[in-house]
Design goal:
alpha/beta; Rossmann fold; seven-stranded mixed beta sheet; 7 strands
């Protein structure tokens, strides 16, 4: 699939997921027969229930980390959440920025935006805003954000250099990001790489860990630190939807690993012009 076809696949899958509860997503991907094949879109998720600002209605279990725990968000900050879904990370961030700060969620799935806005309205928040838009071309002015967060979303963006170029543009000088995402060490079997469900499920769109960190550096970001890393195990019954038993055993023996990482990086205080080699 080309980039636009990949985006359309992701939009369709997450539009369906948006209509379901977390429990339905956990039990049957997105709660409707044949919606997502056998792929479980919640296998990477972490427990948010202990966090201030957590709202169960906004939690669809779609993340692979908790970027707000590492993002050094301060009262009064402007925070942008990329791929904000139903608003889970935005509402946690809002508890950190307080009444004087602002949180902007960006998502390109209309159903997610609608759900997030409804959640914000129920909570009575007037400093949390949800905007429909593409991460490769954000509907945000330059130098806007003190902090950018994202949770298991950038692996879904076909052009990662454009995405991080936009992140660089939107961060204020001296601002920083903390993003949780899925990366690889080793090579995925071609059957997984070509499966649309595995792309939308945050696996086949992942790139090598070293290549991921190099993109941040090329885009002008600095002081890049992996704040957290954990290996992810995709259940055999999911992998067997795409691989034979022999292929599955070969994959396990290959040493390939799928990892969730949370990465911190800063935009320089005095960037040089654009300051990067990405298309920003």
């Amino acid at each position: 699939m080309n980039n636009e076809e990949l985006k359309q696949t992701v939009k369709e899958k997450y539009s369906e997921i948006a209509l379901q509860t977390k429990e339905q997503n956990e039990s049957s991907c997105c709660g409707s027969t044949g919606c997502c094949g056998d792929t479980d879109y919640t296998i990477f998720s972490e427990n948010y229930t202990h966090l201030e600002g957590y709202n169960p209605e906004a939690d669809l279990g779609l993340g692979c980390g908790i970027p707000t725990e590492f993002a050094q968000i301060q009262p009064g900050d402007t925070v942008i959440d990329l791929g904000s879904g139903a608003g889970n990370d935005c509402f946690v961030a809002r508890s950190l920025v307080g009444e004087t700060g602002k949180v902007i969620g960006i998502d390109f799935t209309e159903a997610m935006i609608e759900k997030a806005r409804l959640n914000a309205e129920k909570l009575g928040f007037n400093n949390v805003e949800f905007r429909y838009g593409d991460i490769e071309k954000m509907p945000v002015t330059a130098n806007k954000a003190d902090v950018i967060i994202s949770n298991c979303v950038l692996n879904l963006v076909p052009d990662k250099e454009k995405a991080f170029g936009e992140i660089y543009r939107v961060l204020r000088p001296g601002g920083h990001l903390s993003v949780s995402d899925v990366v690889l060490r080793g090579k995925l079997p071609e059957q997984l790489k070509q499966a649309a469900e595995m792309y939308a499920g945050c696996v086949s769109g992942a790139i090598q860990k070293d290549a991921y960190l190099e993109v941040l550096q090329r885009c002008g970001l600095e002081n890049i630190v992996v704040q957290k890393e954990k290996m992810i195990t995709v259940p055999d019954d999911i992998l067997l939807s795409y691989l034979s038993l022999d292929e599955l055993n070969g994959f396990k023996d290959s040493g390939t690993g799928i990892y969730s990482i949370t990465v911190y990086a800063e935009k320089p205080e005095q960037p040089k012009a654009c300051g990067c080699n990405c298309d920003c």
